[in-house]
Amino acid sequence: MIKTLKNNKVSNHLMLIVFSLLMLYPVIWWVGASLKTTAEMSSPSIWPSTPIWENYTKGWQFSPEFTFGRFFGNTLLMELWNVVGGVLTSAIVAYGFARINFKFRGALFSILLLTMMLPGQVTIVPQYILYNKLQLMDSYIPLILPHFFGGGAFFIFLLVQFIRGIPRELDEAAKIDGSSVYGIFYRIVLPLIKPALVTVAIFTFIWSWDDFFAQMLYLNSVGKFTVGLALRMYVDQFEIQWGRLLAMSLLSVVPSVVLFFFAQKQFVEGIATTGLKG
Amino acid sequence: MKAEAVHKPAAARLRLTKKKAKSSNRNNLAGYIFISPWLLGFLLLTVWPIIQSFYLSFTEYSLLEAPTWTGTQNYANIFKNDTDFTTSLKVTFIFVLFSVPLKLFFSLMVAMMLNKNLKGMNLYRTAIYFPSLIGGSIAVAALWRNMFNLNGYFNHVLSWFGIQGVGWITNPHTSLATLILLNTWQFGSTMVIFLAGLKQIPNELYESASVDGASKVRKFFHITLPMLSPVMFFNLVLGIIGSFQTFTAAFIVTQGGPINSTYMYALFLYDKAFKHYQMGYASALAWILLVIVALMTAINFLVSRYWVFYETDGGKQK
Q1: Are B309 and B253 in contact (CB under 8 A)?
Q2: Which of A81, A80, A225 is nearest to A149 (CA)?
Q3: What band does A63 get if pLDDT is binned at 50, 70 and 90?
Q4: Residue pLDDT, tens place only, A203-255
Q5: What is the CATH number of the domain that holds A267?
Q6: Cβ contact (<8 Å) for B31 and A102?
Q7: What's the CATH fold of domain B83-313?
Q8: What number is the ipTM of this complex?
Q9: Which residue of B55, B137, B189 is the best one to mutate when testing the A interface, meaning the one whose CB has the most A CBs within 10 A?
Q10: Quick check: A206 contacting B, CB < 8 Å?
Q11: What pLDDT shows up at residue A107?
């Protein structure tokens, strides 16, 4: 009995290792390829015969004027606002939906959920026209502003589920001690939903890092480019310098990966616990 | 409390209801203060644009001059004269038809693999989640484009098995399949939702099934699948909606080509709006997409009655 259990464990591990490698294989290849010459790109070996570190140093120097340092700085600054806006407002809005019994709450919550199903294409054209009229083109405001409006329906929904899981007795106790709804939110609920807020912060960071479409629509001048936009300039060149492109692409995913690795537990469990139980 | 209130004189009862009304007023105010960030954004960036978009879909508008009313001209042109419309719709439907089930199947399998208590599970999870983490970024598109070249790494792997590969992205017969594969490779968020669902299935169900001598396959079909059906439904609905809007992969990896074989609907719409600045035409296209997505979702909800199982129904399969 014990022996079969052990065998089972070993085979499980084996299966997972093989599968993980399979999933990561393109990424491993990517690391090697980022150090190759274009001619060597299709060679069978994963590792280059002589690593071309120039791909990184020359690739980093995007143009005589700008380095990737500038683009990373731009993107991180934008992300800082996005994360702050998303975490702050989604918590506030979710508390309102989860704990306060106001008129039309049910209907408004249903509408909130419905907006998750609305194709972005319907609103993007008028939004573009609106920002154009407000002369907000080529600024970060169209990219940042939406995050200050509750951070997105998905996050609000996630947090509402999470807050519903907090025993109401805690609220009642605070109410008896003379706390207002605002006090309860600030002193009781906010500290308790920290794990879920970490999830919101990570998702916001990763998704807006990848949200290339909006960045492409609203940013024009190279000095304001995000990492994604700069990479696209590399892709659009007539003769693509694959080594440099792959090197910078690899660097561009580092922030998300580092963040994910350190918050991995909350990330998966933050979602798991928002369900019925932990 | 309740019983007391009944015995109180009318005046006192009136005072009580007044107090209640006052507190509900206060609740209304507090509630709307709390949800105001969302409400404001909803009105400004969703409701107003929807109205605007609907109006624009009946106009010709190039951003430079005021919109001119053309009635149903845009719609007539789309349905009668625009071959790009039919092409992109066809491409998108094929994409949805293949990528949604593939992704669902694949992510469920992976979620079941990861739903075990093993040492080092965190490491496996990170490794397997990795491709999704880097998501629809340019970085992945660049990687993908290189790997599936005629001289790319993928063909090299195939040559080990004696298979002569093609230029997967430059061949109109395989380009769409390549994008479907890319989409499936990034199954992460779907998988995480499945994983969360699997964790909520009570272990007792499996244990009692084991006592009854049920096989693994039986357990899967009679416990896992029914218990997971609400999650499956959620992933299916969002998967279909999301796939209809696929953009970045087609935009960066294939640019819609070759010969429009990957000309996705969202890409077509983008070209009309932001390349040709035909805002009215693009709005009409957006409304057609909205109707299609709404229809698909409605069908999904109707059909769900026959296969989605909710525990709260008192265990009745609906």
Answers
A1: no
A2: A81
A3: confident
A4: 898 888 888 888 999 999 989 999 988 888 887 776 777 888 888 888 888 88
A5: 1.10.3720.10
A6: yes
A7: MetI-like fold (1.10.3720)
A8: 0.84
A9: B137
A10: yes
A11: 94
